[in-house]
């Protein structure tokens, strides 16, 4: 198959198949979540955010919201709202999704 025929590589909610994000929006694959490996994304879609809360994470104190699939309500990860340490500010507005909670769509 020619490269121009291949569309974007997508990730879906592992539970219901709702399209959540594009592979091209991954910033980092070295994040750790409670259930293992996680990816940091610049953009996601078809998610809803829970309430903001301060949470002590491995890299310090952050204000975050949990991120849920908009179709089935499955907890997929979290969104960084505010980082209190200067070196962590690059995470603000970014989303961490647990690798076990997203599935590759046909690739």
Automatic annotation (TrEMBL):
Bilayer-spanning residue ranges: none
Yippee domain ranges (all copies): 9-106
UniProt keywords, alphabetically: Metal-binding, Zinc
An example molecular function term from Gene Ontology annotations: metal ion binding
InterPro entries: Yippee, Yippee/Mis18/Cereblon, Yippee_fam
Annotated signal sequence range: none
Highest taxon above the source species: Eukaryota
Membership in a protein family: Belongs to the yippee family.
Name of the molecule in the record: Protein yippee-like
